[in-house]
Amino acid sequence: MRNLIHEIHRRSLWQVLGIYIAVSWLVLQVVDVVGSNYGLPDWVAPAALILLLLGLPIVVATAFVQEGMTTNEPEPPVQSLADVGEVPPPPAPEREAHHRLFTWRNALVGGGAAFALLAVLTGAYLVMRSSGIGPAGTLVAKGVVEENQRVLLADFQSPSGDTDLASAVTEAIRIDLAQSGVISLVDRGQVQSLLRAMGRPADAPVTPEIALDAAERGGIGAVIDGQIDAAGTGFVLTVQLVSVPAGQELVSRRATASDSSEVIAAIDELSKGLRERIGESLGSIARAPALEQVATPSLRALRLYSRSENAILNEGDIERGLTLLEEALAEDSTFAMAWRKLGTERANQGLGASGAYAALDKAYEFRERLPDRDRYLTTAQYHWERGEMDRAAIAYETLLEIQPEEAFALTNLGLVRELSGDIEGAFDLYSRGYAADSVGLSQFHVARVLERLGRPGESDEALEHLRARLPDYVLVDYLEMYHAAARGDYDGAREAAREMSVRHGDSELWAVEVAMFEGAIDAIEGRLAEAERDLVVARDMELARGFGARYLQAACDLAFLRLMVAEDPTGVLAAIEAALGRVPLEGLDPLDRPYLYLAAVYALAGETGAARAYLERFDSEVPETRRGGWTFYDHHFARGELAMAEGRFSEAAGHFERGGRMCPSCALPRIARAHALAGQSARAIEVYEDFLAYTGAERIGTRTNAWWSFGDWLTLGPSEEHLARLYDEAGDRQNAAKYYAMFVELWADADDELQPRVRAAQARLEAILAEIG
After folding, report:
1. What are phi and psi of 707, to 5 degrees?
2. What single DSSP character describes residue 526?
3. CA angle (212, 213, 214) in 5-degree steps
4. Which listed residue, 73, 141, 593, 692, has the most CB atoms within 10 A of its CB?
5. Phi then psi for 231, rounded to 5 degrees?
6. For the CA atoms of the chain, what is the radius of gyration?
7. Is residue 681 within 8 Å of 726, Cβ to Cβ?
8. For residues 737 and 28, what is the distance between their CA atoms, to the nearest angstrom?
9. Which is more confident, 385 or 8?
10. Angle subtended at Cα 540 by Cα 536 and Cα 542, rounded to the nearest 5 degrees
11. Is residue 706 classed as helix, strand or coil in its secondary structure?
12. Which residues pair with 704 in a beta bridge?
């Protein structure tokens, strides 16, 4: 202290003032860094600034007095010997008083004490906040709100009638609250389920009164509601947290925006104030990016995004929803959440790989502008589409460390596990998501995998439970169709398809699905003419919708039907050339061109040169990064068919096995056929048996983005026929008779062109029965 004071004494007034300003800046920087990383109450930074401003005149006065004491006093006269011993006159009392008051020791001690008091008050506030003491205590600390409390967000109200703006504010609050680690916001799917249970339309406005009723029914502990009022050219926004069922206001916050450009910032202020009062850590709130960063600084873009959500989720108008998303992105090209929504919807609707990939790549590029949940889901999806399953799994696992009950992460990580062959591990993940998943996707997979595990009774119970919770959920109808078909109940499958057509036929996507499914059932039973009619309907619907790539894929489906079931290539390639004349490949993006399907068709037809040419075009035009997911499956199947056509049967089996990781039941018949052609009858019999024992609903033929796999619809009848012959050739009459009988029963009503094969099997069956008695 002595050295410091001595050093200050040496400085001029202006030097001291400069040092003080520099130290003040440093103090404010420290407060800002600590607040940004660890969290401080909002009043700490203003208090520190006030203390520094109060200290400024004190420092200036001290410097002035001390400089005057040291530089303005006259030099003492030279003393003579006669003067020695005389007592000098005392200093003036006023100057002595100033000198004692305005000292550097007093200034430094006083400043240190002021900041020490601020630190003590800050610490006391933080202790009271975390302990639930007094007005500083948070709702979580007081026990009023549980940590990770489920909260239902009501639609914001607009007394001025601007419902569009109110919807945008609701969406912005939803996005910002999604970053919270202290509450769990109920998603739209569950809200819609609660509305239906109340006898209301799923797209009904969620007013504060309806929100309270729905929350009470759903066992949800609190509701957040609010409103936006016009105030001249500006706006006043209010938000409150209300307890359920009492309806007691627990916390209320208010913010103003001088014009529309400040609305996003006002929403951010509201949300963060609400999260702080509920009990989220100050550090978490301080580190959370601003709403304009995780969403958009453009209110118009946010309005368009909100309208798109309503169009897609409530109105079922996918086309309009996608158009609104594109308009939102025209307003703000860095709006990551809109890019992710656009890519996901394009992929879900099968609108071409190129458009979906482009949008999802943009979402990944701007992923730092997403809340944690969406950022990790986007990262995982990015790696999934590239076939980088290990990296996708890491992203899902990281998200689950932050949000252990995040249903989409649990479900998608389950799919990663299932595709790697870990069925039990996948089932555990789906089961964990069962309770948390309000949109029913995890429950759908639980029912599906129970079927695959050979537990049909439990699968039906899970499906019935899902139906009770989500009576209009399309995937319930979808799974009922496929379960019936997988169990051999083809009449029941047709009935389920008719029910689905009635319930969801207004959706073009599901209308195509039903037509193709009905064609698949007809194909299984050998009714090729009816199957072809159904597939032509589906094919032409795709063209009418403007989906050229899907039209060509459906044309290839018709070719597979002739080549693999009828085993007759007549007219197949002419039909494919006609389809290509109607939808030329050059008019499609390279990522949407069905090179792999075309290669498989030409290989099965014996045109290996054309098949190889299509594979070469795929290799040259489709980047390595675009060969993951189902493209990986299709790539290996096409190469397997080419290897089969060229007599490289072991290589073909290897391709089918690798591609079959995506769909085991699709690969098994082709693997068995390759072994049989290679002369490995015992191995072929073993694989055929595995295929026929498979119990998964997907065995009829998995359809993802309009790409059909080689399931039952193309392989069941021929597999039973080939297996019977293999057993017959091996001298196993008992099993030969068993599979001849199954084949004859399956194709009992097959078309006339297939009846010679049925009669041959019947004759051989009768001969074996006569032989073995």
Report:
1. -105, 115
2. T
3. 95
4. 593
5. -140, 90
6. 37
7. yes
8. 89
9. 385
10. 120
11. coil
12. 707
From CA 470, how far away is CA 443, in angstroms rounded? 11
The helix/strand/coil state of 212 is: helix
Beta-carbon contacts of 391 under 8 Å, excluding residues fewer than 6 positions away, are 383
pLDDT tens column, 31-62: 777 766 666 777 778 888 888 888 878 877 77
Distance set, CA 495 to CA 2, 501, 717 (Å)? 96, 10, 22
pTM (predicted TM-score): 0.74
Give me 620's structure tokens: 């040259």
Handedness of CA 663, 534, 346, 200 (dihedral sign): negative
Q: For residue range 392-447, what is the model confidence (pLDDT) as tens digits?
A: 999 999 999 988 888 889 999 999 998 888 889 999 999 988 876 666 788 889 99
SS3 label, residue 90: coil
Closest C-alpha among 666, 700, 664, 668 to residue 489: 700
Give SS3 for 439: coil
Among the listed residues 643, 653, 571, the one whose alpha carbon sits nearest the alpha carbon of residue 611: 643
CB 394 within 8 A of CB 382: no
**200 SS3 class:** coil
Q: Which helix (H) or strand (E) holds 227?
A: strand 222-231
Q: Which helix (H) or strand (E) holds 725?
A: helix 712-729
* C-alpha span between 104 and 110 (Å, rounded): 10
Name the phi and psi angles at 300, rounded to 5: -65, -45
Q: What angle do CA 648, 651, 654 make, to 5 degrees?
A: 150
Residue type at 321?
A: G
Local structure of residue 705 (DSSP, 8 states): T
Which amino acid type is present at position 189? G
Classified as helix, coil or strand, 589 is coil
Return phi, psi of residue 257, to 5°. -130, 125
Q: Which two tokens stand for residue 405?
A: 């009950």
**Least confident span in 53-57, 372-376, 533-537:** 53-57
State whether residue 215 is helix, strand or coil. Answer: helix
Handedness of CA 690, 693, 698, 699 (dihedral sign): positive
What is the distance between the alpha carbons of residues 419 and 696, in angstroms, rounded to a whole number? 14
